[in-house]
Amino acid sequence: NAAVKDAAVAALTAQDWTVEVSDLYSMKFKAAATAEDITGGVKNAENFCYADEIKLAWEEGRLVDDIKKEQDKLKEADLIIFQVVSEWWKCLVVQLRCVHITKSFNPDSKMSDKKAMLSFTTDCPESVYSATGINGDINVTLWPLQKGILNYCGFQVLAPQIFWDPAHVPAEARSSMLESWRTRLQNLCEEVLLYFAPLDYFDKEKGFQLKPEVHEKYASREFGLTVGIHMGKPLPANSQLKAGV
Description:
Elements: H1 2-14, H2 24-27, H3 50-60, H4 65-76, E1 79-85, E2 115-121, H5 138-151, E3 156-157, E4 161-163, H6 171-185, E5 202-203, E6 209-210, H7 212-219
Parallel strand pairs: 1-2, 2-3, 2-4
Antiparallel strand pairs: 5-6
């Protein structure tokens, strides 16, 4: 992961990008969402609701410094790459501590003009994360991360960069992975985005169910709309791996 991060920093810097790295390990960044994220006390200590309290603290400027610093970085960024380790189905933990306005329910989200993507290493070969592999379809694993976190927070989502089982392949294979990553970074922001069903496909008054006209549009198709919204049909192949699928 360090090598992948270093390759990205070098490739983007060479293209005159301004690159800033948040190394959460060295920063000892506290990932857990607790009342400690708020300064000046909470409004309802007896019935503490993190979502309500953190939103109010954000509005009143009462978030702790480590969160404020990361929020400021997000405000300045055009592209955010989350470089993480994926093992035992764990791929990414992103606290909504850093993003409190979402495009899904607010088209004016401050994140809506920013691109984001996952770049991660796995602990198993690609076959293990297939539709017939023991870990299951990687598209299913990625859906709650790319839709439920990145897209929900308003980001434009680029296809992930996956490094399959780098700890157990020859050095030449790892070098090839890094070279492919460097090549992709040359035109990363020109890529077509991953597709997610827009908010207006759903009827808010009926529990955010697909509107009848949308359901009818896709009724005759072989595959469902997305991995998460599959309409009882076969899952669309590679919809969380390839742009525009």
